[in-house]
Here is the input.
Amino acid sequence: MGRERWVNVRLSRRQFMHGAAAAGSALLFARVVRLARALDVPPPPGFLSDAELRVVDALTARLVPTDTTAGAHEAGVADYIQGLLSAFLGADVNGDGLISAADVTAVIDALGTDDPTADIDGSGKVDAGDVLLAQRSIFGTVLAGPPAFAGRPLFAGGPFSGRTPFPDPATGTPSATFPANAFLDPLALPRVKRLAWTVRLLGAAAVPEVADNPLAATLPDVDLRRRYKEGIAQVNALSAAHGASFDALDTADQDAVIKQLKSTNRSFYDLVTNHTIEGMLCAPEYGGNRGGIGWQLVGFGGDSQPLGYTIFNTTTQQYVERPDKPNSTLDPTDDCSGFSAAMLAFLHLALVQLAGAQQFPDSPCYRG
Amino acid sequence: MALPSAVPNVLGDTSLAGFDVIIIGSGAGGSAAAYVLTAAGMKVLVLEAGDNNFPGLDDPSPGMPIPRYGNDELKQSIRLWDLQDPVVEPRTFRTSDQAAAKANADVNLLCRTVGGTTVHADMKYPRFNEVDFRIATALQEAGPTPDGTSFIDWPLSYDELEPFYTEAEIITGVAGVASGPGSDPFASWRSQPYPMPPLPEMYVGRLLSKAAMDAGWHPIRYPAAINTLPYPAMATLQRPPCVSCGFCSGYGCPNNSKSSAAVTTLRAALLTGHCQLRFNCFVRKLQTDSAGRHIAGVEYVDPDGNVQSVSAGRYILAASAMESVRLVLLSNLSLSSGPQFHIGRHMLFHFQTHGVGIFKQRMHGERGASVTNGLSDFRGVTEGGTGLATDGRPLGGIIEFGTSSEPISAGKSSLQALDVAANIGSKIGLKDILVESPFHAHIAVMTVQAEDAPQPTNRVDLDPNVRDVFGLPVVRLTYQSNAFELGAAAYYKPLLIDIMQRAGATFGFIDPTTGIPPQSRHVLGGLRMSDDPSESVCDGFGKLHDVDNLYCMDGGVMPSSSGYNPTLTLIALALRAAAQLVEPAAPERRLGKGRLRRG
Here is the structure.
């Protein structure tokens, strides 16, 4: 994959206002350029700093801990979250590794062409809209750059990942031919989706068009970059009372911090929990579920196209099933042993006592 | 004509001009209409608010298109790739006119994509019953119906629609069993068998079918518009058989075996050369003449956010029931008192009840086409669907036998249970829930798609406060369940639990989280049809009373919901309405004219 791209997000409010007011104004453009030049610094690996990423890794590792089996750390949940937060992190048009005024110049030079690197909004042509995006990209007030980070797409392409082969049409069995991994190709977002993801990543204030939509400001999964920055800062503050950064605390202290976090900032706790589930079980191309480790952990088959589970034999015009993973019958390895005693006790309490469910006497397991 | 189109955001013949018909929406209804009209040589423009995820849809080469869909839960279920996103296009909800409406992230949001919600549906395509077309009369004969309901008979009979049902099954490609084991004893008469054999059964389908049979019911192989053979025969339109990948309900199909509107009727229409489709184009208004009784053009927001307008002789609403209603309300139509009163009213959703079982064994729901088996006994009709049941079964709905194929969504919905665990001092944590997976791998669900009684008070209008990203007032849904469907649900709930027990469940219960707002994606009504303008908005062919060139060909026209998945009926109605537009005196003469027929 190409260089990692970024834009400096640690701007003061004054710098932000200055930039926003200047954007789009030819008269003030020179000032934007001067200000932007002053911001040229080497790119970090993503939206979260290394130190912040360590906190997220340690935090998610307590939510899905590593014990005799893999947990959030092995699955790469922190990388997943970094990928989500870092999509559209900037438009490094000239490819010099920086998000800077030189990128604005590069877009201006490409005006009227269909140069894909300068066509920031993906409209098919380089126009004034791309110049504006390049300018605003410098200040982190707009989504710009690729809809992916470090090769991890915001929306993966299709149809196939290449994890399973094509079926052999003549025999209805797996062939030796595997498709290319199209999941690695990030999909470009049409204008309305792009506005939606601007709200999700940068908050409702960045999109005037959603001013009359209360959900844009109140849904739990909007304004993600700010929520993570502030949430991590809060975890750090709580950890300071225990004398170390969160990732350096022992697990008992970490759990105490998480308990405090849960009671004081439930929305951030819930956000991280939801992202942990996503990072455990998403397609590996998104950065989590590394090597399919999450799917393995929970016994999920993952994506199975183009092979699938019922394979059509064109000679006999009949379907055949995969003996190891049957479609219509019980899995041959399933011994119907059911749940652990602890889980059964929990289900009894939660379902029978609290939700009025019926519990039935044990009966033989139907094999199909 | 040059196909495929090389113009961004346009499919089909880009040189077409002077359109005969503009269709708003490329889903089941709009694409069926485009199919009929283009086969008759009419020049059709389709405007679609969503993106195109089928590159090559207008490429006549065999094997096309190559979908941008994959077996990818994050993309489709969590990040809402091709769904209406409430962050930019919200809706509001309230339970009565007196209550304050609140923005709600989940008011029956459908797909925003070329092909509409057929792209996401798992394509269960049963027909309605004969009795559904004269439901008001049948209910009246059976005794008093609960207060507040507004049933009317349909302006056509099952027999009149039957040839169009058959046409719809052939051109979309439906797999099922017409007679013998696995067929539906409550289905009404049919002139032809299904074009393809039924889907391969899933384990959970077999498990619940056996239990239902033990209880004396009549489980069926569920009819579905999913290929079980290479189909149709014509090479340019042929698609492969389903491989049971499990990512079906809620997912675009990676290998085109799912017979969505995109890869069937719409592709056939595009390949005629008489059809142009502009996508990422959101229609915001119908322009009218000064009297408000003739549509002069439509205004739409183009892919760059600029407003454009375009005109044609006739216009078809097919944006899905709620959005078609909204578009009419956003336009300056001058309707007489009947249609003006009924517009947006009698909204219908199917009243869903979920019987849940937690089992010792794993259901491996990622194998199979989401739902392959079901049951019509709880629909509450006689054999052949000619009348209401007389043995005490109330009007309910068909049941889908399903499980979970979405571990992320199931994990998230378990978080509430984790809170319960914490409160009762259980040591069960997130990892235990994910690994032991009681609410994903071990779950079986029976979903009843029960009749949702029409009520004038269940309605869509424009919200006075909330606007979408286009600056337009959004849909405000007012909805409250009636004693009609609540009573039927109460009757059938213990019978659902009984089937779960017979299947060997460890726990059986009714999902308590369903209800308000309704969760069903079967969005119907609001533009209901009748030959009597005092009780409806459209006539029996979807033409709006009072407006000389505006038609509705989506689920909006349905006066009642029946208790079966509605899409096949929606398509049959659209085929018939479009055929009538071509040949007013004898619409049935248009049957068999398109290239998907006998393809």
Observations:
- Chain B touches chain A through 101 residues (CB under 8 Å).
- Residues 483-502 of chain B form the longest helix (20 residues).
